[in-house]
Design goal:
It comes from Pseudorhizobium pelagicum. This protein has 9 helices and 10 strands. With 261 residues, the protein is an alpha/beta fold. The structure holds adenosine-5'-diphosphate (ADP) and magnesium ion. Magnesium ion (MG) binds next to α1.
């Protein structure tokens, strides 16, 4: 299976007919998606619509049943119908995991490590990079997310917003090609949402390619280049933020936006 010839080198990620079932439930129903380099894509949709499953398939945390995914023109995931699985070698899957930085709703920090150790852990243990060099980068990353004074703090000593900013720094430390965010502010107290969105806004402005599942429609409107509405494991509507959020063409999108606002 080759990459769609219409695609340009500007395409960083392509997914074709990605399908994922859990028993009789189709969580993702032949999803097609293209993301351009530097694009910020926000995904909205009701609970259970398949948003997390999509991110998890893109990151190979979840094995999909059928379909194909390319990142940076490399075929990194391909499965065919039925029992015949065209497994990619583990190295391709490992590369795909490394290509995608992931930030979850729950911060998932290592609780026995300081903020600085959390950010250094991946580059040192997974990438086997020299500790001293990684340390300098980790210090710069903590500065970038506004936590220069928190190097030695453990997660329990940080607010939820601070923990999530460490989680973003930790993902960036792996130098991913794109960042996946799964409702990064949903678990935060309302007064802590802004500081995380500010970091994400800066990241977007720096040119990072981002896929963000969020209910923060204001953020989506302001920062996204494109908004996708998912329902029932499908992409129901996609377009510019003003169109999808302001004048949705699908009734399901209108109903969802009315419910969220
Ligand atoms: P969203 O993130 O949009 O809320 P999810 O991707 O988490 O939706 O879930 C999509 C559907 O798949 C839901 O119906 C959910 O219950 C189901 N699902 C997700 N993960 C699993 C799993 N590990 N086992 C069984 N069903 C799952
Ligand atoms: Mg989810």
């Amino acid at each position: 299976m080759s990459l769609d010839p219409r695609q340009s080198a500007q395409t960083l990620l392509s997914a074709r007919k990605v399908t994922k079932t859990f028993g009789s439930l189709t969580a993702l129903d032949a999803v097609d998606l293209d993301v351009t380099r530097g694009e910020v894509l926000c995904i909205i949709g009701p609970s259970g619509s398949g948003k997390s499953t999509l991110l998890r398939c893109l990151n190979q945390i979840e094995r999909f049943d059928r379909g194909a995914i390319w990142i940076d023109e490399e075929l990194v995931g391909y499965r065919q119908d039925g029992d015949t699985l065209y497994e990619l070698d583990d190295r391709a899957i490992a590369r795909q995991r490394l290509a995608c930085g992931m930030v979850f709703q729950r911060f998932n920090l290592f609780n026995h490590m300081t903020a600085l150790q959390n950010v250094m852990e991946g580059p040192v243990t997974v990438l086997k990079r020299p500790r001293q060099e990684v340390r300098q980068e980790a210090i710069a990353l903590l500065q970038r997310v506004g936590l220069s004074d928190k190097h030695d703090a453990y997660p329990a000593q940080l607010s939820g917003g601070q923990q999530q900013r460490v989680a973003i720094a930790r993902a960036l430390a792996m130098k991913p090609k794109l960042m996946l965010f799964d409702e990064p502010t949903s678990a935060l107290d309302p007064e802590l949402v802004g500081e995380v969105l500010t970091v994400m806004r800066d990241l977007a402005a720096s040119g990072m390619t981002m896929i963000v599942v969020t209910h923060e429609l204001g953020f989506a409107r302001e920062v996204a280049d494109r908004v996708i509405f998912m329902d029932g494991g499908r992409i129901v509507e996609t377009g510019a933020p003003d169109q999808v959020l302001g004048e949705p063409s699908e009734q399901r999108t209108r109903d969802f936006i009315a419910a969220v606002l």
